[in-house]
Specification:
The complex is a heterodimer of chains A (about 400) and B (about 325). With about 400 residues, chain A is mainly alpha-helical. Helix content of chain A is about 50%, strand content about 0%. In chain A, helix 1 packs across helix 2. Chain A is globular and about 85 Å long. The N terminus of chain A is likely disordered. Chain B has about 325 residues and is of the alpha/beta class. In chain B, the strands form four sheets. In chain B, strands 4-5-8-1-9 form a five-stranded parallel sheet. A two-stranded antiparallel sheet of chain B has the order 2-3. Chain B has a two-stranded antiparallel sheet with strand order 6-7. Chain B is elongated. At the A-B interface, strand 1 and helix 2 of A face strand 3, strand 4, helix 4 and helix 5 of B.
Chain lengths: ~400, ~325
């Protein structure tokens, strides 16, 4: 009488929540039916191992899934994430600890890019806030870190991100992702940021949006120092300078009501005329910049409030400022060339190791990719650093037949 | 469908009908009461259902399982399968893993054979609770003993696991098997305590020559069923004194053999498109050797007269 049963449904099937993520649904099946792991549930359904990412994207046989869960195709699709522009398509956990405490399931809202929890104003986490280890679907309880055994929602009130009503999540993340250089603070996969660093970065972004002056000055200082160390070519510095101005104006255009504040700060540093010109004719100016930077921008007058850029309490810098800017006039303007010399003198304190991360060698790519990149570089605004004619000449080959012909002709 | 298949299907309907005796009733109610006690008391109440082969153990178990079918219930955001009763046969050889997977299979878990022993055990305990199982029949419980050796040792690993399972889940386990293994099981005092209540099913009996006893009631019900569903009559009547005693001698009161005998007779008459079972069909059925394993006589009892039958009963 011990016949093999033909029933394929799990004995306990959770009713999916309106905004539930598919892995959360499968995890609840796992918990309710006492299966050992998420993979064991997936293997039971599909009779083979199937990539969890494919489950997330909904790339699986929906009719088989139905047999085990009673969910029809539309219900299954609602659980999956397919919009890769607005969501992280990942299999790790991404939760608001407070939401999870209240509702005991994982919402796909945590997988939206560039948002913090709208209810609790806390960044979505994939790591334990206490020991920084990745949270695990297969933990006995996913809200309890399997390494430090602490619940993810205990003692995290310090990470609540407070911000002005005028500032939107989009503004904060534009600055966080594209302006502040937070590389090295967290793992390279942005959805797996450490909560502490993510909080600090978001806090910095909010500070920037409220009071952008000091951040913009720091960027300009960094730019002049960075570009002049290795490449004392004024054209490069000018190019980088304008690129930064365009970047910041790009932010101003993309951010909501706080853009005006950033614009004021930028105008204080590079002059309102330049900012107005670029803001009013952004596309045209940007097009010109990309096509003619080596000619026109070297001549373009820039009203730099250099004193403000270099405002520092460092005594030595003060001395250097005095030495190099004796010439600046009563209008507080200075030639860009003079400023670059100044930056060069500051650069002695900076090592190359600090900036190695910013570069990649062309030969690190596959040969096919190298050709593709060279093609793009030819038409694009990318600079080839460390370009060395000697090395290029060493690589040039001439056909012997051609050489004979050349010699005969001459 | 050929004509034989049609006939077999019709006979099968009769064979599926359960004829209830007072022993059957007692066991039925007693087992369910044990399950109820488990619900109420903290201490687990298990029971034994013992009978020789063919006396209706499995029929009784299946009747209880059918009376308590699985259902679905949705509560607290979970759609749960409720499996109040299920039946397994203890596999041979019995290991914790094989018994656990048998139970998971009977519960209708979609992956009953996957995972380690510990994972299976964890899953089983959790699912038994969530499926609100109250009663589990474990048939062929003699597979818990090592029958190869002359001493018939108990498989202590599986028995200890069953004890733990009983304690962890508080479910009523009913061990079903042959009477000769009762004493072996009760050597272990802990098992004896957990399976203190015993229900037995015995052969159909004739108390006196002129009083067919439980056999009479059984035959009476069968003849009613056959007449009602197949419109076939017995001549002489199935409950007539001589035929009843002849059947008793032929089957030794075993329900299963009695049913096999009748099945053979029914097939014979239905094949002939007849609606009357006579002594000839019984004679042929006996000659076919269906009941030879249990028969009390080596000569065909359906050819014997009342005197010979009475003498055989007295001598047996």
């Amino acid at each position: 009488m011990n016949k093999l049963n033909f029933n394929r449904k799990f004995l306990v099937i959770p009713v999916p929540e309106e905004d539930e993520f598919i892995l959360s649904f499968l995890n609840r099946i796992k918990m309710a039916n006492a299966y050992p792991s998420l993979n064991s549930v997936i293997k039971t359904i599909f009779r083979k191992k199937i990539s969890i990412i494919n489950i997330v994207k909904g790339n699986f046989n929906k009719s088989v899934f139905y047999e085990f869960t009673d969910l029809v195709e539309d219900e299954i699709n609602k659980l999956c994430i397919t919009d890769k522009n607005n969501f992280y398509i990942v299999s790790c956990l991404l939760i608001c600890p407070y939401c999870f405490k209240q509702q005991s399931y994982v919402s796909f809202n945590g997988y939206r890019k560039n948002v913090i929890c709208p209810t609790h104003s806390i960044p979505y986490i994939s790591r334990c806030p206490h020991c920084n280890k990745l949270l695990d679907w297969d933990a006995e309880k996913i809200e309890i870190c399997r390494f430090c055994k602490t619940s993810v929602y205990s003692d995290i009130s310090d990470y609540i991100v407070e911000y002005d009503e005028k500032i939107t999540h989009s503004d904060i993340f534009i600055i966080y992702n594209d302006f502040l250089n937070l590389k090295g603070l967290s793992p390279c996969r942005s959805e797996q940021y450490n909560l502490n660093n993510l909080y600090k970065g978001l806090r910095k972004s909010i500070d920037f949006l409220i009071q952008p002056d000091s951040f913009i000055i720091k960027e300009f200082r960094g730019l002049f120092i960075r570009t002049d160390i290795r490449f004392p070519n004024y054209k490069t510095v000018r190019y980088e300078f304008f690129l930064l101005v365009f970047r910041i104006i790009g932010f101003i255009n993309n951010t909501s009501s706080v853009g005006l504040k950033i614009r004021e700060s930028l105008s204080n540093i590079v002059g309102s005329e330049l900012v107005d010109n670029i803001t009013n004719n952004y596309d045209k100016e940007f097009y010109n910049f990309l096509n003619y930077y080596n000619e026109n921008f070297g001549q373009r007058k820039v009203d730099l409030n250099v004193k403000k850029i270099l405002n520092t309490s460092d005594d030595i810098s003060e001395l250097i400022i005095n030495k190099y800017f004796e010439k600046y006039n009563k209008n507080n303007t200075i030639k860009l060339e003079d400023f670059i010399h100044f930056c060069k003198s500051l650069s002695k304190n900076i090592s190359f190791e600090d900036i190695n991360d910013d570069f990649i060698y062309l030969h690190d790519f596959l040969p096919s990719k190298q050709l593709e990149l060279l093609d793009k570089i030819f038409y694009g605004p990318t600079f080839l650093y460390n370009f060395n004619y000697k090395e290029v000449l060493m690589g040039i080959k001439i056909k012997k037949v051609d050489l004979n012909l050349v010699e005969k002709n001459f | 469908m050929n004509s034989d298949q049609v006939i077999l299907d019709k006979i099968n309907k009769i064979m599926q009908l359960v004829i209830v005796s007072s022993e059957f009733n007692t066991a039925y109610k007693g087992i369910l009461l044990c399950a109820e006690k488990n619900k109420t008391y903290a201490q687990p109440f298990g029971c034994l259902l013992l009978a020789k082969g063919g006396l209706g153990k499995t029929t009784l178990c299946q009747t209880i399982v059918k009376k308590h079918p699985p259902t679905y219930r949705t509560e607290e955001g979970l759609k749960k399968s409720i499996v109040p009763v299920f039946y397994i046969e203890v596999p041979s050889p019995a290991t914790v893993k094989s018994v656990a997977s048998c139970m998971l299979n009977a519960l209708h878990d979609p992956a009953p054979f996957s995972g380690s022993t510990a994972q299976m055990n964890h899953k089983l305990v959790a699912l038994l609770k969530v499926c609100e199982t109250r009663l589990i029949f474990m048939d062929e419980f003699h597979h818990l003993f090592d029958l190869q050796t002359s001493t018939k040792r108990m498989n202590t690993v599986v028995c200890n696991w069953i004890k733990t399972l009983v304690n962890e889940t508080g479910i009523c386990f009913c061990l079903v098997g042959l009477p000769e293994f009762e004493s072996l099981l009760k050597i272990d005092s802990q098992l004896a305590r957990r399976f203190s209540q015993t229900f037995k099913l015995n052969q159909l009996k004739v108390t006196k020559i002129d009083e067919p006893g439980t056999l009479h009631a059984f035959l009476h019900q069968i003849s009613l069923n056959i007449e009602k569903y197949l419109h076939i009559k017995f001549e002489p009547s199935l409950t007539s004194q001589l035929l009843a005693l002849q059947i008793y001698i032929a089957t030794n009161g075993h329900h299963a053999y009695l049913m096999l005998l009748l099945e053979n007779c029914l097939f014979q008459v239905m094949k002939k498109d007849s609606y009357k079972i006579t002594i000839e069909e019984f004679i042929k059925a006996w000659d076919d050797g269906i009941t030879s394993y249990v028969s009390k006589t080596k000569t065909n009892p359906f050819r014997l007269d009342m005197t010979s039958i009475s003498s055989k009963i007295r001598n047996s």
